[in-house]
Amino acid sequence: MHGFRNAGQTPTRLLVFATPGGNLQKMFGELADLTSHSEGMPSPQRVVELCARYNIFFAPPPAD
To answer: Is the dihedral of CA 28, 19, 52, 8 positive or negative?
Structure first.
């Protein structure tokens, strides 16, 4: 398991490369469709459900 987080206050971006893309590319395509065909960003729950279909699971946030 691995994860990424922004420890600062400035907004940041994450660029991911995955080769071969395969299912990961399909998952990101569906995520893009959700944002372009809906009203704003999808709910976190919707993102979690979509990613789970591709065996991508989210770790709990780190303890403070």
So the answer is: negative
Structural domain includes residue 48: yes
Q: Is position 45 within any domain?
A: yes
What is the residue range of 38's domain? 22-52
* Residue 43, domain member (yes or no): yes
Which DSSP string corresponds to 10-58? S--------SS-HHHHHHHHHHHHHHHHSSSSPPHHHHHHHHHTTT--P
- 57 within 8 A of 47, measured Cβ to Cβ: no
Total number of domains constituting the chain: 1
Tens-place pLDDT, residues 21-45: 788 889 989 988 888 876 778 888 9
